[in-house]
Design brief:
The chain is of the alpha+beta class. It has six helices and five strands. Helix 3 runs antiparallel to helix 4 and helix 4 runs antiparallel to helix 5. 23% of the residues are buried.
C-alpha cells in the first residue's frame, strides 16, 4: 500500500493497495463488504480514531495496473486523514508499505507492461517539459516496444535465411 497522490493538502488524496489482501483490507475498513469490479463506490471508512467519507474501487486480478488485486481509495486531501488511513491499513497486518516504484515494478513482473514502458512511467513523472511528457507518453503507449518487436521479427527472419544458407552449403559438400 502507498499514497499514490502527492503528499500535502488538496481536494482528494489517493491511496492504493495491491496484492491478494487488497479487497479484504478494504472490506475491513469500509461500511460495506461487497465491491463490484471496476466501479467506484462511496463508503465510510473506520480509521480507528476517526471515520472518513471516501470513494473506493476494486480492480480484481489480472485486470488492474499491477496485474494483482488492486484497491484504490480516494479520501479527502488532508495529510492527517491520509496518515490515519495508512495507519489503519498497516494495523490490518495484511499489507506493508510499498517501495517507490513498486506498483510499476509489479506491473512489469506480472507482464502488464514491458521494460521500456516501465521506464517510461518514471520518465513521464520526471518530465520537465511538454516535449518530455509527449516522448514519455509515446514510450508508455508502446510505440518503442512495437518498433522493437517488428525489428525482432525481421532479425529472426534474417537469421532463418542465414541458417538455411549454411544448411544448403553443407548439403552441397
Amino acid at each position: 500500500y502507498a499514497e499514490a497522490s502527492p503528499a500535502g493538502y488538496g481536494g482528494v488524496s489517493l491511496v492504493r493497495i495491491s496484492g491478494p489482501q487488497a479487497q479484504p483490507i478494504l472490506a475491513s475498513l469500509a461500511d460495506t463488504s461487497t465491491w463490484p469490479a471496476h466501479q467506484q463506490r462511496f463508503c465510510r471508512l473506520n480509521l480507528h480514531e476517526m471515520t472518513e467519507q471516501a470513494f473506493a474501487a476494486y480492480h480484481p486480478a489480472p485486470h488492474s495496473y499491477t496485474g494483482e488485486d488492486v484497491v484504490e481509495i480516494g479520501c479527502h486531501g488532508n495529510p492527517l486523514i491520509v496518515k490515519h488511513l495508512l495507519k489503519a491499513i498497516h494495523l490490518s497486518g495484511l499489507a506493508r508499505l510499498a517501495a517507490r516504484g513498486e506498483f510499476t515494478r509489479r506491473a512489469y513482473l506480472n507482464g502488464k507492461i514491458d521494460l521500456a514502458q516501465a521506464e517510461a512511467v518514471a520518465a513521464l513523472i520526471d518530465a520537465r517539459s511538454v516535449a518530455g511528457i509527449e516522448m514519455a507518453a509515446k514510450l508508455l503507449g508502446g510505440e518503442l516496444s512495437g518498433e522493437l518487436g517488428e525489428l525482432t521479427v525481421r532479425l529472426q527472419d534474417l537469421l532463418t535465411l542465414i541458417e538455411a544458407a549454411f544448411v544448403l552449403d553443407e548439403a552441397e559438400l
